[in-house]
Amino acid sequence: MDVPVRFTGILALLALIPAGLYLTGTGQADPISTALTAVNVVFISVAIFLLFGPAPADHANGSGTTP
User: For every one of its 67 residues, what pLDDT tens digit does the chain have, with 9 covering 90 and above?
Assistant: First the structure.
């Protein structure tokens, strides 16, 4: 199975499913906790997506040879 590493950031968005089930199942689904949960899951997903991306400094010096 050839899955790109950055795909894990997108898969992290699946954490919205159990968070939503918890909020609706416990009866604590007020708008503030729902919004905070969704924002936190999106922040973590974006961080994971960017973490596994290429670093800008990897190619800053060209081929790595000294001038």
Answer: 666 777 777 787 788 888 778 777 777 677 787 788 888 888 888 888 888 777 666 555 555 555 5
Q: Structurally, how many domains does the chain consist of?
A: 1
Minimal CA–CA distance to 22: which of 8, 9, 11, 38?
Answer: 38
Residue 11 within any structural domain of the chain: yes
The CA–CA distances, whole Å, from 55 to 2, 25, 42, 60 equal 22, 41, 21, 9
Claim: this prediction has a pTM higher than 0.70: no
The answer to whether 48 and 15 have CB atoms below 8 angstroms apart is: no
Whether residue 42 is contained in a domain is answered as yes
Spatial contact of 16 and 34, defined as CB atoms under 8 Å apart? no
